């Protein structure tokens, strides 16, 4: 069975990775689907998020990364997914997830939402908090893969930002 794991992944965290691994263990194919949302202004570009997720999931043979816009249920139909995977961390997630799952069921009854719990050490983790802590100079070690930590540092450190801007101006790769 094909399942999709949709989200913003701005940035992807170890909580996402934990869920991808669990999902990959029960579905034949898992598609990590990044929302191409033009309204929100994300910290990481779509390309950056895709690259990070591809490198995080490269070792999982039955996992691939894709992007989508429009209704999630329409995307699921296009890729022939029968299930959508979502993570539930705490009761506070439940109300929003229930609402979304039931709306999606109304739109496409044959698509089933499957909830999984991440490992408890990630139960408080969210992309929003990772962004906030990193932006304010706190440590996010162990909460995101090292490559994401590095990318966040590069994005937020003014000295590295300046250096990258100089390199780009000079036509060099950053
Ligand atoms: O990472 P997030 O923000 O929790 O993911 C939310 C996401 C991408 C799953 C949700 O916003 C979504 O599916 N958006 C696509 C548009 C859509 O189908 N909206 C109706 C949802 S009931």
For the biggest β-sheet, the strand order reads 3-2-1-4-5
* Helix percentage: 40-55%
Radius of gyration computed on alpha carbons: 17 Å
**What is the global morphology?**
globular
Mean pLDDT: 93
Record field, number of beta strands: 5
- Structural class category: alpha/beta
Provide the low-confidence segments as ranges: none
User: Topology as H/E string?
Assistant: EHEHEHEHEHHH
Percentage of residues in strands: 15-25%
Distance between the termini: 40 Å
Continuous helix count: 7
The main sheet comes to: 5 strands, parallel
The bound ligands are: 4'-phosphopantetheine
Could you characterize the architecture of this molecule?
The chain is of the alpha/beta class and 174 residues long. Helices cover 47% and strands 17% of the residues. It has seven helices and five strands; from the N terminus they run βαβαβαβαβααα. It has helices at residues 14-26, 46-57, 72-78, 91-107, 127-135, 146-156, 158-169; strands at residues 2-7, 29-35, 63-68, 83-87, 112-116. Strands 3-2-1-4-5 form a five-stranded parallel sheet, with helices on both faces. Helix 2 (46-57) links the parallel strand 2 and strand 3 (63-68). The protein is globular and about 50 Å long. 4'-phosphopantetheine is lined by residues 6-8, 35, 71-72, 100, 103-104. The site of 4'-phosphopantetheine has 9 residues, from strand 1 and helix 4.
């Amino acid at each position: 069975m094909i399942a999709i794991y949709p989200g913003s992944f701005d940035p992807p965290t170890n909580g996402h990775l934990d869920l991808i691994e669990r999902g990959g263990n029960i579905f034949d194919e898992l598609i990590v689907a990044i929302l191409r949302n033009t309204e929100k202004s994300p910290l990481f570009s779509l390309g950056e998020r895709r690259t990070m997720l591809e490198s995080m999931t490269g070792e999982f043979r039955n996992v691939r990364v894709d992007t989508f816009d429009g209704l999630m249920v329409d995307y699921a139909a296009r890729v022939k997914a029968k299930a959508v995977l979502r993570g539930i961390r705490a009761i506070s997630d439940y109300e929003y997830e229930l609402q979304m799952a039931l709306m999606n069921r109304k739109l496409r009854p044959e698509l089933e939402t499957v909830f999984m719990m991440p490992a408890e050490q990630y139960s408080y983790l969210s992309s929003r908090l990772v962004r906030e802590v990193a932006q304010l100079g706190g440590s996010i070690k162990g909460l995101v893969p090292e490559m994401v930590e590095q990318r966040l540092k590069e994005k937020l450190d003014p000295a590295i930002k300046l250096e990258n801007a100089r390199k780009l101006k000079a036509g060099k790769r950053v």
